[in-house]
TrEMBL record, chain A:
One of its GO terms (cellular component) is plasma membrane. Pfam families: Proton_antipo_M. This is Monovalent cation/H+ antiporter subunit D. The chain crosses the membrane at residues 33-53, 74-99, 119-146, 158-181, 209-230, 237-257, 277-296, 303-323, 329-351, 372-391, 411-432, 453-473. InterPro entries: CPA3_Na-H_Antiporter_D (IPR050586), NADH_UbQ_OxRdtase (IPR003918), ND/Mrp_TM (IPR001750). Belongs to the CPA3 antiporters (TC 2.A.63) subunit D family. It comes from the Bacteria. It is found in: Cell membrane; Membrane.
Length: 513, 930
């Protein structure tokens, strides 16, 4: 019994509850609780990755109810990797928030932990309804965090955020209803095995529901034309929250990868690859739009929001490409873009802080207090996301470009490369305004301080670091892609011990008094 | 492995100036120079081996998935460039020590410079095309930083961005080219690629590959029509211009031509594109070099022109021409770097670079005059200097080019024209600046520069002369080695000599020299001719087009993302309906095999009322209170439907939820206008009606299709195991707290967060409090009606008892924590409403957040408890206990879990209510302590 598999959910839940139970507890307690729990989560996640890297797919049956009847948490390479990515990002967001942003409103750390619970749950679960539940947890927690600190911009963009996402949740429920109504099960592995033997009178229904799920997941991952909730909300969110939100779009992408590789993989015959054309064109369109968005950005937060969209477009397009290579490429790209864009949100906040009234707007203003340091971080971060070497973005982009075959190249390459150029133009405009084009006069903003400095440095430092470590990382993502490309292993691991038709042993017996 | 050091040492070296920033300017310069000097020594150590035909290589794995290795090679071409980069680099370090003023940060400058040096060395020694691309883009980045070094100058900033954009774009093309090349060859290793000339040239991808590589090379080497960024890059400090924009970085483009020459050249495409581009650049640059009034502008355009010349040579598809190209790279680097440094001295000592003001400087700086004159003469191709040799070879090769058929004579003719112009602007550089009368209003009185500022120029000039006189000894070995890397197969015989006898190229040289003098004398006519054109400033037009792109992007996006939730929601629903319909079209027939249940009047009436109430909600949505009432009817009938189809748990839950939500919504309505103004146009309304009808139709079809198909589901397992496994007869409750207790844990977390989120939203909210309704009637002064308050007070204990009862029976009979919690919440809400927030808060001074959180915590701890018994999270157990007085009773851990649900529901609901209520009371607490 390896309780480690459920810890990514239970640990933040308990930590969150412990900080929320009394609103009056001291700042110090809340901060140490939150940072400590997140650091512990990093350790747990690292152990999970270590466990998963032997290639075995493990599961944890909650309440002892075996699949396909109970809810399970599944540990494979992908889920382990996503949890580790989340926890690392979260640790630095949390440290950043501890520099003072957490006290701008109430209950920050508790909500932050519950948000982590939601994200990790979505990555770990092997049950489609449970995925819905965790989507709800992360949605409501993210909404609360988005509102942290208050203000008109946040309230306004928050309304769009929550309204669109609640509509998405309803669609999720409809899709779930149809799937349960046709397949009679909720465990994803079981669903996959039932889809493989589906009669023709039901394939259409499953297809309909699958595509509805795709709509929900692309809404979560912000694909054109469903991305509208993202730019303003992310630009308005408090920095530590916005940085954490860098992982949120990836939850949607993760869900697409998980559900569509498992349920609608090669075994599903006529339903195989049904998402690909939608993702391909949608991803390309998102990429193009995001490039325009980068050019149009009037302040750095908006710019970084569109950079998130650039990565979304890239990832979605790559998801639709056939083959394991593109999957391995996009997983590597996802890791680095999540960390670096998160770091850029933090950087935007520090720049905002030191520029007085001008804030993060791309206009001439007073010089920055720590111009060289921030300038260096800006350069590395932006070069990282724009895909300029020697940073990780370049490797990620090259991997994705390389994995496209034949005529796919004709669309993907120009759009991806020109998108990169637009990013370079936009970033160089913003950077030269921030760091070079300033009024005369003495800088007077606050210094960034140790916590904020550490957090920003660590996240943006991912750009060079992940480039150096690209060898082992791509090795891991390649084996992950292979694991995903062979869903029957997943099915075997989960369904073999207790096949559906066999009589179930009761997991919990009576306890004599 | 020593080979790695050539690149690594300068990389480490970029940290040296930062570390030694405080140790004085001279020390900083010396320390910076140490590591590149060692690297140069290593290169020298390798030289005999390379000349002997060996190929030192080193290779380490980096990203095998990408085919990217840390692989370096040192062939003749690499060695030549390593010498150029490190040798001139060292001279520049010395020069910059004296050039930079006290205000400029020396350490920053050197750090960038060393970074650039690393990148450049990487390009020339990389043995992996992707690795080469890495360094390629790194030169763009470091040159961006160096051009923008004087960041307070607008032209520096814009020049830097322009250079980055153009060379960055070229770099992306190069990446695409490299990836395609790797696809064709199957490897990015340069050694492998160079062996596959046939494969590449016969591939259908040859043309795109060629084009992409050439785009990369041409943007970097400022070839027409991409030449425009280079003159504006001259906003950089002069050492940078000398180093990057004449001697090395711009040579990276021609280096790429040389590097890829063995595999890409020899085809018609190569010939036409490369020669024509080179020719156009040669003439364009030469003409504008003659026109410019800025000293560095003249040099910039002459650089463009010479780069065109080199490109042209590589285009000829002849081995000897390629040799001449490589030779001219060396020569141009030496004389142009010294010219730039001389220009820098003039600028430094006179305070201006305007040729119209600079005259007769020889009186003030005779030494510099001599040095500049020799360098210019070399540029003009005067005999005894190195420029003459390569220019002769160039002219000779231009005669060989026959690919233009009957028009082939134009190539030598135009080449001669280029040389004429080259002579003219070289002459102008010397005569206009150092002679030709007296200087006019110079900001400073000029004098000779410091001794060591001149030293780098002297060294380079010495090289120019020695190569010019003794080419056989000075450059032949390295040229031979470099050529071996460029020209595949049998290397051509190279005879570098001053005197080849009287021949056509010599005559062309003579024509060039004499006609050049003539053109210089007639230059005023050319100026007059040129004045009729409107001056185009590339920087301004670049800036203008960027601005225009940005503005149109903003315009378009502002219209697309117009902030209208209606539009966003429309697109979401439209997408959903399209994809759902897409799947439904694959369903052969909507109706399945199950037969329909008979209709009875009760169901029909209920469904009818449900539909009508739904319609009413929508149609009256602008009168909010009425609409809400209709909504409550909908909810009511949904509950009744549940009851009718034997789902008492659901019915109870739905009913309680309805009550609570409607009350909370009513509270919220208090702050809103009672009517929504009509905002949507008729077209919008009909569009929305259409969409909602289709959406309804699609969802209904889905429902119908699903419900009419027989289903084998996992639910039978739950029915069978509810009692033996879960210890409860109420299957719904066992599912909620046991089979799928984890879902419930998640959902009560959601509920708890919702309460906290609403607290967060409302805590600091200050809303306008209406004192009257829309028609101006004041709200009733009797805020807390007596009858209601006494009834509610009486009801309170009763209802709480009921809720406990419902809770306790939940595991076996309809009920459970969720419903019980809602019942308790409803009655407390009633007390709140009838007595007011203040009255209630005085008597029930609970803080609801801890209650809600405790609820979730109890549920979570129940789950954790099973770890003690080494069971998975949330494993339940139950047993029958015989308790005195009460008798046999079944206790299950699931009840603890359910208690958590109960508390969460009560806590969260009341938290929402209390916070909404607080907003309405006059004594709202200010920001609550956290």
């Amino acid at each position: 019994m390896d309780h480690l598999l459920v810890l990514p959910i239970v640990l933040p839940l308990v930590a969150g509850l412990a900080t929320l139970i009394r609103r009056e507890v001291g700042t110090r307690y809340k901060r140490s609780m939150s940072v400590g729990a997140t650091a512990l989560l990093v350790v747990v996640a690292a152990l999970l990755v270590y466990m998963a890297s032997d290639g075995t797919i493990r599961y944890y049956a909650l309440g002892g109810w075996q699949p396909p009847f109970g809810i399970i948490m599944v540990l494979d390479r992908l889920s382990a990797m996503m949890v580790l990515l989340t926890s690392v990002l979260a640790l630095f967001c949390c440290i950043y928030a501890c520099a003072g942003q957490d006290e701008e409103g109430s209950n920050f750390h508790g909500l932050f932990q519950l948000q982590l619970m939601g994200i990790n749950g979505a990555f770990m679960t092997g049950d489609l309804f449970n995925l819905f539940v965790f989507f709800e947890v992360l949605l409501i927690a993210s909404y609360a965090l988005l509102m942290h600190g208050g203000g008109k911009a946040r309230t306004q963009s928050g309304l769009h955020y929550v309204a669109l996402n609640l509509a998405g949740s309803s669609l999720f429920l409809i899709a779930l209803g149809v799937l349960y109504g046709t397949l009679g099960t909720l465990n994803m592995a079981d669903m996959a095995s039932r889809i493989a033997g589906l009669g023709t009178d039901r394939t259409g229904l499953v297809k309909s529901a699958g595509l509805l799920l795709l709509t929900v997941f692309t809404l979560k991952s912000a694909m054109l034309p469903l991305y509208f909730w993202l730019p303003r909300a992310y630009a308005a969110a408090p920095a530590a929250v916005a940085a954490l939100f860098a992982i949120m779009t990836k939850v949607g992408i993760y869900a697409i990868i998980r559900v569509f590789s498992l349920l609608f993989g090669d075994r599903s015959a006529s339903l195989a690859d049904m998402a690909a054309p939608w993702l391909w064109w949608g991803g390309l369109a998102t990429l193009a739009l995001a490039a325009i968005g980068c050019l149009s950005a009037r302040d750095m937060r908006t710019l970084v929001s569109y950079l998130i969209l650039v990565s979304v477009g890239t990832l979605l397009t790559a998801v639709s490409l056939p083959g394991n290579d593109s999957m391995a490429a996009l997983l590597y790209y996802m890791i680095q873009t999540t960390l670096v864009t998160g770091g850029l949100f933090l950087l935007a906040d520090i720049i905002d802080d030191q520029r007085g009234k001008a804030g993060a707007r791309i206009v001439k203003s007073r010089p920055l207090r720590q111009s060289s340091l921030l300038g260096g971080l800006f350069l590395v971060g932006m070069a990282g996301v724009a895909g300029l070497p020697p940073f990780s973005g370049a490797i990620g982009k090259a991997l994705i470009l390389q994995s496209a075959e034949g005529s796919d190249r004709l669309w993907l390459w120009p759009i991806l490369l020109i998108g990169g150029l637009c990013t370079i133009v936009a970033a160089s405009r913003a950077g030269s305004t921030f760091f070079w084009r300033s009024h005369e006069g003495e800088p007077s903003g606050p210094l960034m301080g140790k916590r904020r400095g550490l957090a920003t440095l660590a996240l943006i430092g991912a750009a060079p670091l992940l480039s150096i470590l690209a060898g082992p990382l791509t090795h891991y993502t390649q084996s992950t892609a292979q694991q995903l490309g062979n869903p029957s292993r997943y099915l075997d691991a989960i369904l073999t011990p207790t096949p559906i038709n066999q009589a179930m042993p009761t997991p919990a017996g009576e306890v004599s008094p | 492995m020593t080979l790695l050091l050539i690149v690594l040492l300068p990389l480490v070296g970029s940290l040296v100036p930062i570390a030694s920033a405080r140790s004085g300017r001279t020390t900083c310069a010396w320390l910076t120079a140490i590591l590149p000097a060692i690297a140069l020594g290593i290169a020298a150590w390798y030289t005999p081996a390379v000349f002997g035909g060996q190929l030192p290589q080193v290779s380490l794995d980096w990203v095998p998935a990408l085919g990217l290795d840390i692989a370096f090679r040192l062939d003749g071409l690499s060695l030549l460039f390593v010498y150029l980069v490190l040798g001139i680099g060292l001279l520049i370090i010395l020069y910059a020590r004296y050039y930079l003023s006290e205000k400029d940060s020396m350490s920053r400058f050197y750090a960038y410079l060393m970074l650039f040096m690393t990148a450049m060395l990487g390009i020339v020694t990389a043995d992996n095309l992707l690795l080469m691309w890495f360094f390629w883009e790194l030169t763009s980045l470091s040159s961006f930083l160096l051009i923008g070094y004087w960041s307070h100058l607008s032209e520096a900033r814009k020049g830097a961005r322009m250079a980055l954009t153009v060379t960055g774009a070229g770099g992306l093309c190069l990446l695409a080219g490299i990836l395609l090349m790797g696809h064709v060859v199957g490897s990015y290793s340069l050694t492998t690629v160079l062996e596959h000339r046939e494969l590449i040239q016969q591939s259908s991808l040859y043309q795109p590959i060629l084009l992409l590589f050439l785009l990369g090379a041409f943007t970097k080497s400022a070839q027409f029509p991409f030449q425009f960024w280079l003159p504006h890059a001259m906003a950089a400090p002069t050492p940078v211009s000398a180093y990057l924009h004449s001697a090395t970085m711009v040579k990276a483009g021609v280096f790429l031509l040389a590097r890829m020459y063995p595999v890409l050249s020899g085809t018609d495409e190569w010939f036409y594109i490369v020669t024509l581009t080179g020719l156009a650049t040669l003439l364009y640059g030469a003409f504008f070099a003659l026109i410019k009034q800025d000293l560095k502008g003249v040099l910039a355009f002459s650089t463009i022109s010479h780069l065109g010349l080199i490109t042209l040579l590589f285009g000829f598809n002849s081995k000897l021409a390629a040799v001449a190209g490589v030779f001219h790279i060396i020569n141009h680097a030496t004389f142009k770097a010294s010219l730039f440094m001389a220009a820098g001295i003039v600028d430094h000592e006179c305070g201006t670079r305007d040729i119209r003001k600079l005259n007769g400087l020889w009186r003030y700086m005779p030494y510099t005059t001599v040095l500049a004159a020799v360098a210019s003469a070399s540029m003009a191709g005067v005999p005894l200097l190195n420029g003459f040799l390569s220019k002769e070879m160039f002219l000779a090769q231009s005669l060989e080019a026959q690919m233009l058929g009957g028009l082939s004579w134009m190539i030598p003719a135009l080449a001669t024209l280029g040389s004429v112009l080259s002579v003219a602007y070289s002459l102008r550089f010397i005569h206009d600046v150092f002679f030709n009368g007296e200087p006019r209003d110079l900001p400073k009185t000029p004098h000779e520069p410091p001794r060591y500022m001149r030293l780098p120029i002297e060294i380079l000039i010495l090289l120019c002369i020695m190569v010019g006189i003794l080419p056989g000894i000075m450059v032949e070995p390295i040229l031979r080695a470099a050529t071996a890397a460029v020209v595949p197969g049998q290397a051509p015989e190279i005879h570098l000599a001053l005197w080849h006898g009287f021949n056509l190229p010599l005559m062309m040289s003579a024509i060039a020299l004499s006609a050049g003098v003539l053109v210089y004398l007639l230059r005023n006519h050319i100026y007059r001719f040129h004045r009729q054109f409107r001056a185009v400033n590339a920087r301004q037009s670049f800036e203008f087009s960027v601005q225009r792109v940005v503005r149109s992007a903003q315009w378009g996006l502002d219209r697309f993302e117009n902030g209208s939730l209606q539009r966003y929601m429309f697109l979401l629903l439209l997408s959903a309906v399209i994809v759902a319909a897409f799947g439904l079209m694959d369903v052969p027939s909507m109706a399945g095999l199950k037969s329909l249940q008979p209709l009875d009047p009760v169901v029909v009436t209920g469904a009818g009322i449900l539909c009508l109430a739904g319609l009413g909600t929508v149609m009256l949505h602008r009168r909010r209170l009425l609409s809400l009432l209709f909504l409550s009817v909908v909810g009511m009938f949904v509950s009744l439907t549940f009851a009718r189809f034997s789902a008492p748990d659901l019915a109870l839950t739905q009913l309680a939820v309805e009550v609570v939500t409607i009350i909370l919504l009513m509270l919220a309505l208090f702050f809103l206008p009672q009517k929504t103004p009509k905002e949507s146009s008729g077209r919008r309304v009909s569009r929305d009606i259409l969409l909602s009808m289709i959406f309804g139709g699609v969802i209904a079809s889905l429902n119908y299709a699903v419900l009419t198909r027989p289903l084998q589901s996992i639910s039978t397992y739950f029915i069978e195991n509810s009692v033996p496994g879960g210890g409860g007869h109420n299957i719904v409750n066992v599912i909620l707290v046991d089979f799928r207790g984890f879902d419930t844990l998640g959902e009560i977390t959601v509920l708890g967060i919702a309460g906290i989120a609403i607290y967060k939203l409302l805590n600091r909210l200050r809303l306008f409090m209406p004192s009257s309704d829309m028609e101006g009637r004041p709200w009733s002064p009797d805020r807390y009606p007596v009858i209601l308050s006494s009834v509610s007070q009486t009801l309170l204990p009763l209802a709480l008892l009921v809720s406990v009862f419902i809770f306790l029976r939940g595991h076996n009979l309809p009920g459970g924590g969720f419903i019980a919690g809602l019942v308790a919440a409803v009655v407390i809400i009633l007390v709140y409403m009838s007595r007011g927030v203040e009255w209630t808060q005085r008597r029930m001074s609970f803080n609801y957040q801890p209650i809600a959180v405790t609820g979730v915590a109890i549920a979570a701890l129940t789950g954790l408890g099973s770890w003690v018994f080494n069971k998975p999270f949330l494993t339940s157990s139950f047993g029958h206990f015989d308790i005195p007085l009460i008798g046999d009773i079944e206790l299950a851990t699931a009840m603890m879990f359910d208690l958590g649900v109960y508390l969460t529901v009560v806590g969260s609901t009341l938290m929402i209510l209390a916070n909404l209520g607080k907003v309405t009371t006059p004594h709202r607490p200010s920001k609550e302590k956290q």
